[in-house]
Automatic annotation (TrEMBL):
Membrane-crossing residue ranges in chain numbering: none
Full protein name: Copper chaperone PCu(A)C
InterPro entries: LpqE-like, Lxx211020-like, PCuAC_sf
Domain of life: Bacteria
PANTHER family referenced in this protein's UniProt entry, alphabetically: BLR7088 PROTEIN, COPPER CHAPERONE PCU(A)C
Organism: Paracoccus halophilus
Gene3D superfamilies: PCu(A)C copper chaperone (2.60.40.1890)
Length: 141
């Protein structure tokens, strides 16, 4: 029996080696949409590329960035985002973020949001972030 477990573990363990997230949180903008934020740190020796995000919690999850145009904050799709070894990339209000569209249920404080990050050559990373609606940003999404 122990041999079987040893054989199965590396598949998932290797995909995530050296990559971790900190400061993850999410909040709703309205009942149908919201955003998720986190710092993705690459402590491995492989070049990672944040290429996409998936979730069962919403119809769509996209990588967005916020930028100012003519005095207005606008959101546009972004990515893929390179995260070289030793680097980190911040998804934060008013900057890059995971946009959630078509939420199946509104994001309520205390709930947890499960996401899968597609990190290119670094594989896929399952993360869970808490919903904190009161953590309001300065501007944008
Ligand atoms: Cu957005």
């Amino acid at each position: 029996m122990p041999a079987l477990i040893v054989c199965m573990l590396p598949l998932t363990a290797m995909a995530q080696e050296g990559v971790r997230i900190t400061d993850g949180h999410a909040r709703g903008a309205n009942p149908k949409s919201g955003a998720a934020y986190m710092v993705i740190r690459n402590d491995g020796d492989r070049a990672c590329t944040l290429s996409g995000v998936e979730t069962d919690a919403a119809a769509r999850a996209e990588l967005h960035t916020s930028r100012e145009e003519n005095g207005l904050m606008r959101m546009v799709r972004t990515g893929p985002v390179p995260i070289p070894p030793g680097a980190s990339h911040e998804l934060a209000p008013g900057r890059d973020h995971v946009m959630l569209m078509g939420l199946k249920t509104p994001l309520r404080d205390g709930a947890e949001l499960a996401l899968t990050l597609d990190l290119g050559a670094c594989g896929r990373l399952d993360v869970t972030v808490p919903v904190v609606n009161t953590r309001l940003p300065a501007r944008g999404d």
